[in-house]
Write a structure and sequence with these properties.
The protein is an all-beta fold. The chain contains one helix and 28 strands. The strands form six sheets. Strands 1, 24, 25, 26, 27 and 28 form a six-stranded mixed β-sheet that branches. Strands 2-3-4-5-6-7 form a six-stranded antiparallel β-sheet, with no helix packed on it. A four-stranded antiparallel β-sheet has the order 8-9-10-11, with no helix packed on it.
């Protein structure tokens, strides 16, 4: 079924009027976010909360409390649901509605902390890894376990699938990188890397597998799992990697509080964004040049970058034009500032939903 968020009438780019730097202070650590397919909104989650943030225009639309610490969020194939993985002892994959954020159910079966979830959208399948050293494959709608990958006797902290969704890749603290076929589910190849693996991401063309390592970013051949290039650039774990600008560049976010951009052709770091004051667990750069990031400093932010030449010399406009507190009810002063900065945006208008109004953060 086609999602209404993926219709042809949905805007596909950020408006030129978006301020250079905007952010939301949730007053709680922000761990992760996921963008909708049309990049119209994002689901943001962290320590004890789930939020829906509008990107066109920018503003907090809904925020609800959660009874767990959420470390991963992924959209379903239709984008009507989101799958949330927590590192709490309940070992559940929580399922919420992407509009109302109401909890719809949960998937149970793991015997340890969840570290990663991966949604195969064309197959309606959810893949998860846990500290119980198993990878499990679930029916995304029936909430039933389809298969357990028995070869994975390792705590995998990162999962990724290729563009055709015929294979998925898993890496973890043991420095082992494995590739598995999906139909049937079996181990294809295994290779050890110089560093432990904490994040994986495929390029858009499927020719390169990017990896966030202990203090480096890696570029790998997805067929042989050979490490093509490794760029040491951080002082701590690389929690997320994401390609941009035609897959020629990569952005990595780290627990050393920094976000860096890398050029694959040059094999070097080309720019470092020092925007946050605590660990950055998730970041990406959109095709329009907006840096979106989530950090333990309690901020979810969007900053405009400037591509000053084809070789990607990046510059960042640092001055924040507005800030939105992590509440539904904003002050009159904040409301006036928002309306001046972003026309036609009413921050007090709640999202139309049958779910009752969520509690406010103190």
């Amino acid at each position: 079924m086609q999602s209404k968020f993926l219709s042809s009438s949905c805007p596909s780019s950020f408006p030129p009027s978006l301020p250079a730097s905007v952010y939301i202070n949730f007053k709680k650590p922000v761990n992760c976010f996921a963008l909708s397919g049309c990049r119209k909104f994002a689901v943001v989650s962290g320590t004890g909360f789930i939020a829906r943030v509008g990107l066109l225009p920018f503003g907090l639309q809904r925020c609800v409390e959660a009874d767990c610490d959420i470390w991963k969020v992924e959209f379903s194939a239709s984008e009507l649901f989101v799958y949330l993985a927590s590192n709490e002892s309940d070992s559940l994959i929580h399922i919420h509605h992407s509009l109302s954020l109401a909890r719809l159910g949960s998937i149970a079966g793991h015997g340890g902390f969840l570290s990663e979830i991966l949604v195969l959208r064309t197959r309606d399948v959810v893949v998860s890894s846990s500290s119980d050293k198993t990878i499990r494959v679930w029916d995304g709608f029936g909430y039933k376990e389809r298969e357990q990958v028995s070869e994975a006797n390792v705590w995998f902290r990162a999962l990724a699938c290729d563009s055709e969704e015929s294979r998925f890749f898993a890496g973890g603290g043991s420095r082992d990188l494995m590739s598995f076929s999906i139909l049937p589910y079996k181990l294809i190849r295994k290779r050890s890397l110089p560093e432990a693996i904490f994040s994986l991401r495929f390029s858009g063309d499927g020719r390169t597998l990017f990896a966030g390592l202990e203090v480096s970013v890696g570029f790998l051949n997805p067929q042989s799992l050979a490490l093509l290039r490794r760029i040491p650039a951080f002082l701590d774990l690389v929690r997320a990697v994401a390609p941009f600008y035609g897959d020629k560049f990569l952005v990595g976010s780290s627990e050393d509080d920094s976000i860096s951009a890398f050029a694959f052709g040059k094999g070097a770091k080309v720019y470092t964004f020092e925007r946050h004051q605590d660990r950055v667990f998730n970041a990406l750069i959109t095709p329009e040049g907006y840096l979106i990031s989530a950090s333990q400093d309690r901020h979810f932010s969007i900053a405009k970058t400037r591509l000053t030449d084809p070789k990607l010399t990046l510059d960042l406009e640092h001055t924040p034009l507005l800030a939105i507190k992590g509440k539904h009810a904003l002050s009159q002063l904040a409301t006036r500032r928002l309306k001046r900065a972003i026309p036609l945006f009413d921050p007090l208008a709640p999202l139309r939903s049958p779910v009752s109004k969520p509690p406010l953060f103190v």
